[in-house]
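Worked example 2:
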Amino acid sequence: MNEKITVIVPVYNVKKYLRQALDSIINQSYKNYKVVIVDDGSTDGCGKICDEYADIDSRIKVIHKTNGGLMSAWICGLEQTATEFVVFVDSDDYIAADMLEIFDNEQKKQNSDIIIGNYRWVNGSKEKRAVEKCNTGFYDKDKIKKEIYPTMINTGKFQNRGIELSRWGKMIRTELIKKNLKYCDLRVSYGEDLNIMVPVLCDCKTIAIIDDENADYFYRMNKQSIIHSYKATMYQQVRILYNKLYKVIHKKEMDIFEQQLQADYLAAIVQCYKNELSNPDGLKRIIKNIDLMHNDHLLQKAITEVDWKKYDKKNKIIIHILKNWNFFEKNVAT
């Protein structure tokens, strides 16, 4: 049987959750798929669990590699993928039992390039289902341009997007991802899915959006996140990421995203400012690092051109500080 879908699972030190993730994949009602598990140098025994599952299920291939980060892991998995479509499942998340079957059935109806499902936030024993940002249904290129692109990266609100710009929770035509891998930068771990999903969505011709609870993706919230501890390279990563994204939209002649990208960049720098306030090296280092942000010409351009006055008070204050950054902002406000 020629499989249609490959499920790629990047794994790194998630022993507590890994079995639930893999069980949710191998017990799918749909059967015409392969699984590529990439053990990204785990040190907690995940590698043995991956091999155990490969021994009991011939659809599973395991790759053990030196740790290189999440993006390097799923790219490694993609390099082993020859199927028409790919689905990503992060190893501390899991998926509904009928996800692949529902995705496949929906894809066949209009030969869609991308199927987008819904998801649930999981925090311990609590779940909260996300509210769909776009109407369900089939979108051809004209409808994508009219109804998805105008708010895809930013809706006009602070760090708010018209669709979820994640790898997970979707079934994506493999060739769309492979031809856009050139835009991915392994140095980026903040917002890294934007590396691939923005160019992929620029190129796709058809999208189907569904809202079926039996196809939900379960996103676990208690992850080791950039927002939970100080990230020393966060600003540098943001700069790398958005410089890449600006190149993407210009290369693909997608001027519709120019102002949206400015708004998203402004929000990302606000998060960098918040991150910097927990810098353990003290106030002098904090001020020096925020100096770099203040002198960022892309940021100052965004502050001038984005309508940020309608943001909430806290974020408006931070933007005001980043804009002016005089004696008061440096020595009192910060």
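Residues 258-276 form the longest helix (19 residues). The chain has 13 helices and twelve strands.
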